[in-house]
């Protein structure tokens, strides 16, 4: 389900809201939100923010992925413009926290420690000898903040024997990946311990551009930033780090078995999502994004059905999904990067049928949405409106196309589709030609500043 075009942060895995939305709501007591994200996801993220927050978020676009240290540096530079001592709470957008009240109590301590110049992380109380998380070793207590401690060491993901030792010792905690710090302190520590990161991001920030509602970092400078996490760049080197142990009901939702662990279950310990039937099944996670999915006589299995792929695995083998994804990428399978349903700033399209010389799509355009003015060198298109009204530009003419009406767009003609109405526009597109790839689009004009 988590693919390059639509990663897990944007999916509703725990509730009816996406994980990004849950993260934003978790922090809204404190947040003037800054989101640092892949530029390819900017319109999806902006829409999800609008759905849950009344205030606008500042959305910073990474031209390339460079891990968490450059991303956090960009956010700190943005915050420091108005208040160098602003306190930032850095949260990955893909974690679950069930104990909200405890979180708020811990945050009060973290804010106090951060105001005093500490870089604070949360240590999650381990409940099992987990080998999939990094650990933090707690040191002596801080004299000025009750419940906060110096970090003695960071530990990599352990083997099972070491994880058992960490659990029994009682002073080792899971590394949550969340940090609280002052903007000026973070930037100062970057200068001391990761100057190449700061220099590259600073230059990219200084040459940033406003693009609609987004802040676009300069590509050339940002590409020079080392690909490094905040843990390796700062947390493991600084003398200012601190940890606050807490039991927050936290999970990084890093695998299907982790999602089974934190989801509501039926009387037979099954988690069932979507159009699902089970018979004589125990301890299973079964999820369908469409087709009826039936599971009978199985225990501890994971079954996930999407319109273009099916996963079946034992819960104990859930981590091997990564190996499958690696194979899909190696074989250059489209399923490694995108779904049949592809989101765009104007709405979405969904592939229905694909053959050698033709394919059929469903296109949905939001009210007021407008596709780019474009042309194709290798295909012609036939549009049939099945809901709403379409305003179609075809070379020098404009056509109003209503339900059960159609329009033909010959190969090479300039064309554009708009929704002038108040309800979504739905149409069926039939493409035919020698080449049907998405890269056969020559954009002549675009309302969303896409290249």
UniProtKB/TrEMBL annotation:
- Which of UniProt's keywords are assigned here? GTP-binding, Isomerase, Nucleotide-binding, Nucleotidyltransferase, Transferase
| Residue span, Nucleotidyl transferase domain | 5-266
- Quote the catalytic activity from the record: alpha-D-mannose 1-phosphate + GTP + H(+) = GDP-alpha-D-mannose + diphosphate
* Keyword Isomerase applies: yes
- Gene3D superfamilies, alphabetized: Jelly Rolls, Spore Coat Polysaccharide Biosynthesis Protein SpsA, Chain A
- Domain of life according to the entry: Bacteria
Biological processes per GO annotation: GDP-mannose biosynthetic process; polysaccharide biosynthetic process
All residue ranges annotated as the Mannose-6-phosphate isomerase type II C-terminal domain in the record = 332-446
- Start and end residues of each MannoseP isomerase/GMP-like beta-helix domain: 279-328
Keyword Nucleotide-binding present in the record's keywords: the answer is yes
EC numbers on record: 2.7.7.13
State one molecular function term (GO): GTP binding
UniProt record similarity statement: Belongs to the mannose-6-phosphate isomerase type 2 family.
Q: What's the name of the protein?
A: mannose-1-phosphate guanylyltransferase
Q: Which species?
A: Acetobacter cibinongensis
């Amino acid at each position: 389900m988590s693919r390059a075009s639509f990663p897990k942060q944007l999916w509703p895995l725990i509730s009816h809201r996406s994980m990004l939305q849950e993260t934003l709501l978790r922090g809204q007591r404190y947040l003037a939100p800054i989101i640092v994200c892949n530029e390819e996801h900017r319109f999806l993220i902006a829409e999800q923010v609008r759905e849950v927050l009344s205030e606008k978020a500042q959305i910073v676009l990474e031209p390339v992925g460079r891990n968490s240290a450059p991303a956090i540096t960009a956010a700190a530079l943005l915050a420091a413009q108005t208040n160098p001592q602003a306190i930032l709470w850095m949260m990955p957008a893909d974690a679950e926290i069930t104990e909200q009240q405890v979180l708020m109590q811990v945050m009060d301590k973290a804010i106090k420690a951060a105001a005093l110049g500490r870089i604070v992380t949360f240590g999650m109380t381990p409940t099992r000898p987990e080998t999939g998380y990094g650990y933090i070793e707690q040191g002596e207590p801080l004299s000025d903040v009750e419940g906060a401690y110096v970090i003695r060491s960071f530990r990599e993901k352990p083997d099972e024997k070491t994880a058992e030792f960490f659990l029994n010792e009682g002073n080792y905690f899971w590394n949550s990946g969340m940090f609280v710090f002052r903007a000026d302190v973070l930037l100062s520590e970057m200068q001391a311990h990761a100057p190449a990161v700061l220099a590259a991001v600073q230059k990219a920030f200084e040459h940033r551009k406003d693009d609609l509602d987004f802040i676009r970092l300069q590509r050339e400078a940002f590409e020079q930033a080392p690909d490094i996490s905040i843990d390796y760049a700062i947390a493991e080197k600084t003398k200012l780090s601190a940890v606050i142990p807490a039991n927050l009901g936290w999970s990084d939702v890093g695998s299907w078995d982790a999602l089974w662990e934190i989801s509501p279950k039926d009387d037979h310990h099954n988690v069932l999502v979507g159009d699902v039937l089970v018979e004589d099944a125990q301890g299973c996670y079964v999820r369908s994004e469409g087709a009826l999915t039936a599971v009978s006589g199985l225990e501890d299995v994971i079954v996930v059905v999407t319109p273009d792929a099916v996963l079946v695995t034992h819960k104990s083998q859930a981590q091997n999904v990564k190996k499958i994804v690696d194979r899909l990428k190696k074989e250059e399978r489209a399923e490694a990067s995108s779904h049949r349903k592809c989101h765009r700033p104007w709405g979405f399209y969904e592939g229905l049928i694909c053959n050698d010389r033709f394919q059929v799509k469903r296109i949905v355009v939001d009210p007021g949405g407008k596709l780019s003015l474009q042309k194709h060198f290798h295909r012609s298109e036939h549009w049939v409106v099945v809901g709403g009204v379409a305003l179609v530009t075809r070379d020098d003419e404009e056509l109003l196309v209503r339900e059960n009406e159609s329009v033909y767009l010959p190969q090479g003609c300039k064309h554009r589709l708009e929704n002038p109405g108040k309800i979504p526009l739905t149409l069926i597109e039939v493409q035919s030609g020698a080449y049907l790839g998405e890269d056969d689009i020559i954009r002549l004009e675009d309302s969303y500043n896409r290249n």
